[in-house]
Amino acid sequence: MNRLNAVLICALLTGCQAVPGEGPLSSTITKDAGLSGQELGRKNTVAYDIIDVDARSARLVSDYVATALNRRFGIGGGGVGRVVIGVGDALKVTIFEAGSDGLFSTTDSKQTNLELVVQPNGKASIPYVGSVQFAGKTLEQARQTILDALVKKAVEPDVIVTSMATASRNVTVSGAVGHSSVVPLSLVSETINEVIAKAGGPSAQPYETYVTLVRGKKTGTALLKSIIENPSENVNVQPGDQIFVTRDPRTFTVLGSTKLNKRVDFGANDLNLLEAVALAGGGNDNTIDAKGYFVFRYEEPDVVMSLLGNQRFNAMLNKGMAPDRQGRYPIVYRLDMTHPDSLIVGQTFPVKSRDVIYASRHPSVDFVKFLSIVARPIGAASSAASAARNIERLGE
Length: 396
Prior knowledge:
alpha+beta, Outer membrane lipoprotein wza fold like, 3 domains, six-stranded mixed sheet, 16 strands, about 35% helix, transmembrane beta strand, transport
């Protein structure tokens, strides 16, 4: 009895810290959340915060996944905006005169067609007009500029300016498409899907194809499937945009007290948290801590700020929370499966590619394991003593 008491006291004091395990307990993950490396007493740690998966957080994450490009670049349903002439554009200038013997007319024709290319300085030359600034002007503005210069030189002149080629309105499309190319934009609104189609279309299924749009210093990435299903994500492209299409089969990793620990393919257009756990065989009834389902993820900054609030977000930055190369921050989502509504909330929380889902073991598992480890020498000693007594009896 004294030995058993000693074991129990030892177990309580150590908290079973020395027992082999498959990962941290729920209490450890929760305790370390929101702390800096200095507070934890460790160097080079990753500072993270923890968010409960509830109706609000699940809805916010789901909405952001569906509107990533819209948030970054603006809604895609608007018009193309003001289209101006740029350097390298090819134009056709048609000049009409009322008289039969003018600067640009003859007895056989009352019009002259001039083809020109806008030079690097933004200008091009017109006979009897000189160097004309074209870059930055609309076709109508360019027409009016030429017409005003000819009014006192030609006989009742009129002018038409037509765009022949728009070298200044190119978009680069590369990656997992039919043929990577430089796509010239027309003078009407064109969306991401239309431009990708001009490049031969995607070479993989929409649910495993990612589209990255680079515009100036802004970058946004979305699943092609989301762009197809959400018209607001099919944003209008602009001259100079770069579009990268990549095939990346979506996977997530499951660890901990589930029946399978492995990397799992999505194998579907969408996947929620409950479906992901089910693909791993569900939780192990003998070891699982139903309060401890966690999703480890580098999350988009807009989502993190919305979930934490500015004050908490800034506090975490001061504690050392740092973004990865894509500007995303480390966040841990926690789902408590002891609540009945978790079976509803879990259906609306989307799993993202490269997520790590961890199912924590129940604290009692470590306690039982500790007792079994300590009990081994006691059992061995008892067996040895029993064997010695039997030998003594045989000797008598």
